[in-house]
Amino acid sequence: MQMLSSRQSIDEMAAICAAADRIRFLTPRLHAEMTSELRWPGDPDPDAGIDVRSLELGPGGDLALTILRRPEVMADLAAWDAGGMLGAETSARIKSSSALVVVTARGHALTDYARGGSAAEAVWVLAQSHGLAVQPISPSFLYVVDERELQDVAPDHVGELTELRSRFLRAAGLDTAAGEVPILVLRLAYAAPASVRSRRRPLAVDAPQLR
């Protein structure tokens, strides 16, 4: 785990993640995956996605999101090589953080990522127990390991994502030579309680499968 608390390191992470968010919006596959996770009031199956109200964007932000989720708008911005402000919200939130935590693991096996996920959960719970608000951040290059995977993720932005990933690893201080990989970035801040609780599916345990 790496903790970033200096203004320089937080600002660098803000710039990196904002640029990665712009690419997420402008890449059809990533944009479709992102918008498919959002749930608006009245949508079916609200427990299977992210309630947009829990993003705490406010009326203006919610209105902007209704425009940004339209694929034809993103296609036009991509054609014009525009959209410089698409990462502005991410940048502003990261810059307002008290600190950032980069949760890491060693190795690329599924079990390594499972252990990393458990660590992220533990950090999240501990931070909240100390009165901190926690927001997860996962830039679009977070789980790629080589250029081939970047080609699959965003073929029109391989060079830019390669550079952003390199900057991210340096800023986070990861020991990549020892196999250290990022699991999740957690933004820590002091904030008012969330206005909407995150919804969860009911937990149903099939006891015979646990034996």
TrEMBL record:
It comes from the Bacteria. GO terms for molecular function: oxidoreductase activity. This is Nitroreductase. The lineage of its organism: Bacteria, Bacillati, Actinomycetota, Actinomycetes, Mycobacteriales.
